[in-house]
């Protein structure tokens, strides 16, 4: 038999039941810092989403492509519709413009014909339509542009009216009447010398000049006084009693101003050796060419038992080839080099002479130098200037190349000597610009 102590040893040991509050107190309690970190880490954790498959991607892309194709098609149709609309409107506008332009031109032509008829009717009676200020300015502007004689929008040159008023003024000034003029030995009958007045399409010339354009205010005032029936106010001090006019109507001609030619581009010498100023005046009358002038002279003259060729000596003098105290300078040119090479070659193999080489003698501006230049006739005036400038140096004032007979200025550098008429030896002059 077992003892009670053995029974106690065999009994299963069961742990004692601990209260719930005590168990809860024995659990580990986290700090506040750990709670914050845990909540933050949980909030930052992203939500995982499943990736789309290839089939879904292809389906989405196909739907978008179909939608874009529909949009492009609709926009193309809209553009075509608008283009058709624009073409129709342009055609309609063009037809309206053509019909409207024809109507306006026809109406303007009718009105212009009526105005011309009325002006001709008034002109037959010596009248001019004035109208309002605006109408007058417009009419003067139109008439001035059609005739080309207006000096501005407020001035119009009426040639017929000027001639009519001058005839009336000449009667008042006593044209053709004689008066007694005192002289050193007594008295004599004399007539008033008329004022020479030439009317051009672009201006006037009173007395012996200068030319006065219609653009100048003084010219406009003078012509306006005449058209109003008065003597020009600029002549009141010189002719207080009036003066007749001798008018030369050249309304169909345009005055062209030309610079006068210098008699000689240098200093003249008198018999006593004193310097004389070059005369710049020109004789009146028709100018003769060199040949016409020489034909008026005798060809040969016998004097002191010698036969003198007058024409050749005068021709040489006119062309400037007479012997003078000026240095002759030979300028190096390709033509001169070619001539020199031909002269150095022996007569057995001598080249044919260059028939297109000419010799030009150019007198300097002061007449102290004469430049001899050999050139091909195919060379230009620009080549001649380059040869002269290369010898004379840079920095000299500009100059013109001229010929006295005939009077001509060679200012086109691109023109050849042959086209200028310089096919033979010639004498030229240099003139300051």
Tertiary shape: flat
Label the structural class: alpha+beta
Q: Strand-residue fraction?
A: 15-25%
The order of strands across the largest sheet is: 11-13-12-16-14-15
Q: What is the C-alpha radius of gyration, as a whole number of Å?
A: 55 Å
Number of helices: 11
In N-to-C order, the SSE pattern is HHHHHHEEEEEHEEEHEEHEHEEHEEE
> How many β strands by DSSP?
16
Helicity level:
40-55%
Task: Compute the separation of the termini in Å.
Answer: 166 Å
Biggest pleated sheet: 6 strands, mixed
Low-confidence stretches: 147-153, 276-281, 321-325
Can you tag this structure with a few keywords?
alpha+beta; 6-stranded mixed β-sheet; 4-stranded mixed β-sheet; 11 helices; 17% strand; flat
How would you sum up this structure, described in words?
The chain has about 425 residues and is an alpha+beta fold. About 40% of the residues lie in helices and about 15% in strands. It is built from 11 helices and 16 strands. The chain has helices at about 5-10, 20-25, 30-45, 55-125, 135-145, 160-170, 215-225, 290-295, 310-320, 335-345, 380-390; strands at about 180, 185-190, 195-200, 205, 210-215, 245-250, 270, 275, 300-305, 305-310, 325-330, 355-365, 370-375, 400-405, 410, 425-430. The strands form 5 sheets. Strands 11-13-12-16-14-15 form a 6-stranded mixed beta sheet. Strands 5-4-3-6 form a 4-stranded mixed beta sheet, covered by helices on one side. It has a two-stranded antiparallel ribbon with strand order 1-2. The chain is flat, with a radius of gyration of 55 Å. The model is unreliable at about 145-155, about 275-280 and about 320-325 (pLDDT under 50).
